[in-house]
Amino acid sequence: MDDFDDIARTNRAHWEQDVQQAGQYTRPWLDLDPGILRRFAAGEIEFLPEPYAYIYPPHIFKNVKTQDVLCLASGGGQQSAVYGLLGARVTAYDLTEGQLAADRQAAEHHGYAIKTIQGDMRDLSVFSPASFDLVYQEISLCFVPDVRPVYREVARVLRPGGVYRVGHVNPATYMVDEDSWDGATYHISGPYLGGGLPPEECEGFYEFRHQFHDIFNGLIDAGLAIQSVWEDPRHLRHDPHAQPGTNRHLLNSVQKFFCIVARKRP
After folding, report:
1. Secondary element (H or E) of residue 8
2. pTM over 0.90
3. Average pLDDT in the 38-61 region?
4. Which of 82, 137, 183, 208 is most buried, judging by how many CB atoms fall within 10 Å of its CB?
5. What architecture (CATH level 2) is domain 6-264?
């Protein structure tokens, strides 16, 4: 029986198609260097090299050996591979079976154990309360209409003092993309609004823009204490050779992504 709603079913089909097309976030990281990861986790390296640069901040990966880590809505054999190689007990929970297959592929390749479970990030009822020391979520909340149910579920499955690292798209610059380059600058293509993106902006899937009051206050309301906010390293490492009108040049010029680190109150 498929308990997913229309949003989840539609987005699951979209990501299964992306897996078939070997999209950027569906290709497992089989060439990770454990030595570089350990130096990164120890704070000796500020940024990971491409294509791993969106993994941050470093201190989230320190002392994770033997910790129970949930990679939430972050399948694809990328984030889970980082934690697996650092010795964490990793569970990958994702909407898409093809993404979870990549997590298993990375685990088999690198030689660590992993649990993979298919499900909707809004429903973590498969997990008992206080199951995890750390929940790591990349930029996937844009695929659900409300962040608060996810936050509440994360708070429930975190142990007291546990950490939630969650990535977000900047709502102020959500409607800026590389296609808006006019030869001199990038343009905002729509008003500052929350809610679903226009159908022409997301063909074949659902995507939602969350505003700052929900992004931040939702964490507090869920019983999580905000510890810090971090810029995506791809904004901080400028590529002087990036061509205008490309995603790399856009990230040089426009703040699009950030993450929040929050802790469950004892």
Report:
1. helix 6-20
2. yes
3. 95
4. 82
5. 3-Layer(aba) Sandwich (3.40)
